[in-house]
Amino acid sequence: MQQPLNVAITGAAGQISYALLFRLIAGELAGNQQSLSLRLLEVPEALPMLEGVVMELADCAAPLLRDVVVTADPEVAFRDADLVFLLGARPRGPGMERRDLLQGNAEIFSRQGRALNEVARRSVKVLVVGNPANTNALIALRNAPELSPRNFSAMTRLDHNRALSLLAAQCGCEVGEVKRIAIWGNHSTSQFPDLSHATVSGRSALALVGDDWFRGSFIPTVQQRGASVIQVRGKSSAASAANAALGQMRSWIGATPGGDWVSMAVLSDGSYGIAEGIVYSFPVTTAGGDFQIARDLPIGDFARERMQASAAELLEERAMVEHLFPV
Ligand code: NAD
Ligand code: LMR
Q1: Is residue 91 located within the same domain as residue 213?
Q2: Domains of the chain: total
């Protein structure tokens, strides 16, 4: 058995964490030879409830689970962390937009960014899930100047999976036959779920489904899916979010299959004319623990307009939290 991976999870008593933890200790993150040391962070009021979750972890008798640390102190949770899932933040309720959470949640990510800067491994991978995820990731990375911004990403894998599933259903094909879906921009209703490059068993997805369905049905359905789940379930998505978090982290530490990519929100380097300095979802390939934004994709006028609209929203969000960036 290798040295344990130190995996920190914030919001560990919450609903996404509850759907994630038991999959982690079953070996779904790094395989069934990789032991894990879990560091679970919560606010003090939620620690008693978290103790119940820890009892259940113990009751799994999972061979991969080396130890569990429970704490309300980010510096304890993040010490020597290899992989970090930042789930801890308020979720939205019916009628709210994700950006309505910004003021309430932003402080959490500046505090946690500073703690990561101080105590995490320099190779740490930090996945931000708490909403609004892109701008929270920006706050965290700006507060961790001694870590590379490439150590941070925000989750758009759930949007990516939603898009995959929806397209496969429309085409009557298996999800595995769909390649090169892209989510551009913010994990919000301004995101652009893009089929321009997508293929279904090697054939152009757009040619199969047509522009009317793409623009009139596919795009708004993916953009609104989080709100639809809240409306029907009464709570925001949890199991599908945990599944996506696991998938995004697994891609990041692993490798995307040849000829395909995944969507991941990372600090923009100006690719595709997207403003630098915002955390923006791009199609990326991964290998050797690193990611590369997919290069040289042809971008039509419709796509460019959608991509820039989401960038504009992220610039607005950034302006709302600039006071939290150290000078
Ligand atoms: P939840 O309310 O069930 O759990 C959140 C937990 O975070 C709570 O237990 C709370 O005590 C804890 N918490 C709050 N502040 C904290 C802090 N400073 N440190 C540590 N823990 C803290 O919510 P949930 O359903 O698990 O969702 C968590 C977040 O993930 C929400 O913001 C939600 O909107 C977001 N989310 C994002 C995506 C995505 O695709 N990016 C998908 C689903 C949900
Ligand atoms: C989602 O997309 O399901 C989450 O971001 C939760 C939400 O508020 O929509």
Answers
A1: no
A2: 2
- 187: annotated active-site residue: yes
Answer whether residue 195 is part of any domain.
yes
Residue nearest to atom 7 of ligand 2 (CA): 226
Q: What is the pLDDT of residues 104-129, one digit of tens each?
A: 889 999 999 999 999 999 999 999 99
Q: For ligand 2, pick from 229, 231, 243, 263 the residue to mutate: most ligand atoms within 8 Å of CB.
A: 229
In a domain, 164, yes or no: yes
In angstroms, the CA 151 to CA 148 distance is 6
Ligand 1 pocket test, pick from 9, 16, 84 with the greatest ligand atom count within 8 Å of Cβ, gives 16
* pLDDT of 200 over the 80 cut: yes
Nearest CA to 136 among 120, 159, 157, 152?
152
Residue 1 is predicted with a pLDDT of 56
Residue 259 CA to ligand 1 centre (angstroms): 34
Beta strands at 83-86 and 5-10: parallel, antiparallel or unpaired: parallel
Q: What is the CATH number of the domain that holds 70?
A: 3.40.50.720
